[in-house]
Amino acid sequence: NYAIGTKEFVLCEKGILQVKETSNKIKEIIEEKEIKLEDIFIFYSPFKRTFETAEIIKNAIEKNFEETHFI
Q1: By CB distance 3.0 to 4.6 Å, which of 21, 40, 54, 71 could disulfide with 44?
Q2: Per-residue pLDDT tens for 34-45?
């Protein structure tokens, strides 16, 4: 697989739609369970597609990346 180790691949349109659908489900669960946003952490690797995924989820649940700590 030529994509292994490449950080430049981004989400395709189908992937974006899948993440958006999943993000909405995540948001519903957060609201149903009354989970506080400060108790939620988003972890992602340095790959562009994982950052894009985290960004979509972050926007759906209205979580600030400023609160995110990088390791």
Answers
A1: 54
A2: 999 989 988 888
Residue 9, number of CB atoms within 10 A of its CB: 13
- Rounded to an integer, the average pLDDT of 55-69 is 79
Q: Are 49 and 15 in contact (CB under 8 A)?
A: yes
Backbone angles phi, psi at 43, to 5 degrees: -110, 140
pTM metric for this prediction: 0.78
Q: Which residue has the tokens 């979509």?
A: 56
SS3 29: helix
